[in-house]
TrEMBL record:
Belongs to the glycosyl hydrolase 13 family. GO terms for biological process: oligosaccharide catabolic process. CDD domains: AmyAc_SI_OligoGlu_DGase. This is Alpha-glucosidase. Pfam families: Alpha-amylase. It comes from Candidatus Anaerobiospirillum pullicola. Residues 13-423 form the Glycosyl hydrolase family 13 catalytic domain. Keywords: Glycosidase, Hydrolase. InterPro entries: GH (IPR017853), GH13_cat_dom (IPR006047), O16G_dom_2 (IPR045857). One of its GO terms (molecular function) is alpha-amylase activity. SUPFAM superfamilies: (Trans)glycosidases.
Length: 564
């Protein structure tokens, strides 16, 4: 593997709307982020990914972009962004932006011009398709429910529709049009020229379409099929598009890029993230794929610790086989809090936060931490559908009511699976609104902010935050950095509820063992011949220990990292 500037680094995702509000309007902003750069530096962060900060109507929280080359006023100005770039660079932190180019906003100038004149150049930037037999072109269901087809504004009396795999306010961009692709390359290079070091590439598989627009077999009683199932049929088209994007933007700038890609195989991983792949790395979304392979919240399974570790370890094996880097995560802006989702109830606390963090931080790849994860934020207790902001959750609530759920049951299901769990404000201290804002927060504040916050943990030995600091320091420590970055991964099978693996230096000179126990019962595991005179504990959580006879002792939630 060729060494890259981003190898060995740790990344952090900020959801700007919920991170820190500097002006009291209830919405986080760029100056708020700037005010917390020293905090991120203290944590040990090298790369900072910002969810969208472009001008937007915020139908889908900024993933509906109305202008790709500016900053939304709610976040600040281009000058604020330049200041963020400069001050982050002073602290050794590089900025990565969200690149959302499967679709734009219906308020974007391109779409407005297209709707005004169906023969315009901009009309070719979208999929304007005639219906079939008096119906929509096909039976695809959008990610947010309902058909992916809506009649074109101003042409409601005509049998012509536009495609939107997400909300109707997010028209899909036609990547089969070379003029559209050139527009995309220009906007990417605008930010590269400004100093952005890379991009997280959103929903990129959706850019490929079957231009015959066929129906697919229904996957639910509504007679429709999830749009994602069309993506997998047409991946042969994507190489042309992504290689061109890479050649005209990412490669000349040596950008770090991470793709949001589901349903990977050995062949597709190599194409997307191998040595000559389209992107630097891909997020490990295998756990989300496990639940989202079902079309509705009401069908989502409960993910056990064994399910979680199988997904994560299978991904490690898959990427290692093709010499690709993965980006392991526990949570992001589209997921519930991992501590509440992947761990049993008795570990949905600070002990569980440390346990799952230990497993994450030493995996092969470039780990991403999501804001609040480093203090062990859990799911928020939403009590009414009116407290949710997310389109996805609101649509799923309607679906459950239609299928006989009570309001209480539907809200509880949305509260378990909903994306707003990750979008509630960052918890800075125990003051009103958790120190996030002096105004009214745009989304409700977590119920435990009085005790679960940065102020109560920063500089406090034994806190979740301090433990994350120690994990990051260990991952980057000069004596272990080569093994942590390039060493091989191998799972260790100890038993149900136990998550264990090794990382071994390429020259076999060093081996690291990671073990975490998610069972309530104590685990006693003998190292046997693995123990040497040099075996030592590098870090441990929740009273985990190594006895003199080489027995690892892990209580409930115990986690330990050993140099063998």
């Amino acid at each position: 593997m060729q060494n890259k500037w981003w190898h060995g680094k740790v990344a952090y995702q900020i959801y700007p709307k919920s991170f820190c509000d500097s002006n009291g309007d209830g919405v986080g902003d760029l100056q708020g982020i700037i005010s917390k750069l020293d905090y991120l530096k203290a944590l040990g962060i090298d790369i900072l990914w910002l969810s969208p900060i472009y001008p937007s109507p915020f139908v889908d929280q900024g993933y509906d972009i109305s202008n790709y080359v500016d900053i939304d006023p709610s976040f600040g100005t281009l000058q604020d962004f330049d200041e963020l770039l400069a001050k982050a660079k002073e602290r050794g932190i590089d900025i990565v932006m969200d690149l959302v180019v499967n679709h734009c906003s219906s308020e974007h100038e391109w779409f407005k011009k297209a709707c005004a004149d169906l023969n315009s150049e901009e009309a070719g930037y979208f999929y304007f398709i005639k219906g079939k037999d008096g119906k929509v072109p096909n039976n695809l269901r959008s990610y947010f429910g309902g058909s992916v087809w809506t009649k074109i504004p101003g042409h409601e009396n005509e049998d012509i529709y536009y495609s939107h795999y997400f909300a109707k306010e997010q028209p899909d961009l036609n990547w089969y049009n070379p003029k559209l692709r050139e527009q995309v390359f220009k906007l990417v290079n605008f930010w590269i020229d400004r100093g952005v070091k890379g991009f997280r590439v959103d929903a990129i598989l959706s850019i490929v379409k079957d231009l015959s627009f066929p129906d697919l077999p229904a996957d639910d009683t509504d007679g429709m099929c999830h749009a994602a199932k069309m993506n997998a049929r047409n991946l042969g088209d994507i190489g042309k598009f992504l290689n061109e994007l890479k050649a005209k933007t990412f490669t000349p700038a040596d950008s770090f890029t991470v793709g949001e890609v589901l349903t990977v195989t050995p062949d597709s991983v190599k194409e997307f993230a191998g040595p000559d792949g389209y992107f630097s790395t891909l997020f490990d979304l295998s756990c989300r794929e496990l639940v989202e392979s079902h079309p509705h919240y009401r069908m989502f399974p409960t993910v056990t610790p064994d399910d979680f570790v199988k997904c994560v370890f299978d991904t490690q094996d898959l990427y290692q086989k093709v010499d690709a880097f993965v980006a392991p995560i526990i949570e992001n802006h589209d997921e519930p809090r991992g501590v509440s989702y992947y761990l049993p109830e008795y570990l949905q606390n600070e002990h569980g936060a440390k346990t799952i963090a230990t497993v994450l931080m030493f995996l092969r790849g470039i780990p991403f931490i999501y804001q609040g994860q480093e203090i062990g934020m859990t799911n928020t207790k939403f009590e009414s559908i009116d407290e949710f902001n997310d389109l996805y959750a609101k649509d799923e609530y309607r679906d459950m009511i239609e299928h006989g759920f009570t309001e209480e049951q539907a809200v509880a299901c949305c509260a378990r699976h909903g994306r707003d769990n990750a979008r509630t404000p960052m918890l800075w201290d125990d003051s009103p609104n958790a120190g996030f804002t002096t105004g009214k927060p745009w989304l409700r504040v977590h119920q435990d902010y009085k005790t679960l916050n940065v102020k109560s943990q920063f500089g406090v030995p034994g806190s979740t935050f301090s433990y994350y600091q120690d994990l990051i320091k260990l991952r980057k420590a000069p004596e272990y950095a080569q093994t942590m970055t390039y060493g091989t991964f191998a799972r260790v099978n100890i038993g149900s509820g136990v998550q264990a693996y090794t990382r071994t230096a390429l020259d076999q000179s060093q081996k690291i063992l990671v073990i975490a126990n998610t069972n309530q019962e104590e685990l006693r595991y003998s190292l046997g011949d693995l123990k040497t005179a040099n075996t030592k504990v590098l870090i441990s959580a929740n009273d985990a220990k190594l006895d003199a006879d080489g027995t690892v002792v892990l209580g409930c939630g115990g986690a330990i990292v050993l140099a063998l």
